[in-house]
Amino acid sequence: MTKKQLNESVEYLKKKGFDTPEIGIVLGTGLGQLVEEIENSIEAHYNHIPYFPLATVEFHSGKLIYGTIGDKTVVVMQGRFHLYEGYDFLDITYPIRVMHQLGIKKLFVSNAAGAINLDYKKGDIMLIEDHINLQGGSPLAFKNVAEFGDRFVDMSEPYDLNMRNKIEAIAKKEGITLQKGVYASVVGPQLETKAEYRMLKILGADAVGMSTVPEVIVANHLRLPIMAVSVLTDECDPDNLLPVNIAEIIEIAGKTEPKMIKLFKELMKEI
């Protein structure tokens, strides 16, 4: 990755009309309905943006969408990138750097995850307070990282406390159950074994997924405040573990998403 590549990506988007968005949003697996809320939208497919990776997961459509939600200008990633697709950490986080260079001041991230904390149920939304990186690498571990920011990035509070407090208050006001917890990010794409679920619980994870952490690390590198939620799509009880049903996971994500959209839209009004 070079600054020249980033500049070319950004210039392409600016020419298409992506003009100083305020908020960047990353949509997780099965969580695409938010794009229906975008007004005056402009789309850029990933395969047309210089140096952008291509989305390969079937439930990710692979485009950046610019427009307005309420009185805020947004740029939305419909389709993200994962280690399990064969991308490296620089590919996965390249869009975050592009959105930052376009001008975003805040980043919202969503994902679909499994509930390790058995007090949490499928269909719940969990506000991520902290994370455990089990992906075996870092998006900051490259030679010329110092050209883009500090090499050693503080991660004592990776998720913005102000936005977390606001979204908790919004959930309470709207009567939406909002759990809070620690998200563990693994490589995938295989789901976890019973022993692995037990390990994750011992480590202190409340939910597990295959994304988000690389983007959060880069957002912190860019000093970009971030708020992230997991839509809990399955319950990972090692003592009563059933074979995974991907179709059911996507269905639960779709049913829960309207509550997530409500939280996101209300938070936008307050920041």
Automatic annotation (TrEMBL):
SUPFAM superfamilies for the chain: Purine and uridine phosphorylases (SSF53167)
GO molecular function: purine-nucleoside phosphorylase activity
Domain Nucleoside phosphorylase: 23-267
Pfam families the record matches: PNP_UDP_1
Domain of life: Bacteria
EC number: 2.4.2.1
GO annotation terms (biological process): nucleoside metabolic process
An annotated GO cellular component: cytoplasm
Keywords of the record: Glycosyltransferase, Transferase
Pathway stated in the Swiss-Prot or TrEMBL entry: Purine metabolism; purine nucleoside salvage
InterPro entries (UniProt xref): Nucleoside_phosphorylase_d (IPR000845), Nucleoside_phosphorylase_sf (IPR035994), Pur_Nuc_Pase_Ino/Guo-sp (IPR011270), Purine_phosphorylase (IPR011268)
Family: Belongs to the PNP/MTAP phosphorylase family.
Function: The purine nucleoside phosphorylases catalyze the phosphorolytic breakdown of the N-glycosidic bond in the beta-(deoxy)ribonucleoside molecules, with the formation of the corresponding free purine bases and pentose-1-phosphate.
Name of the molecule in the record: Purine nucleoside phosphorylase
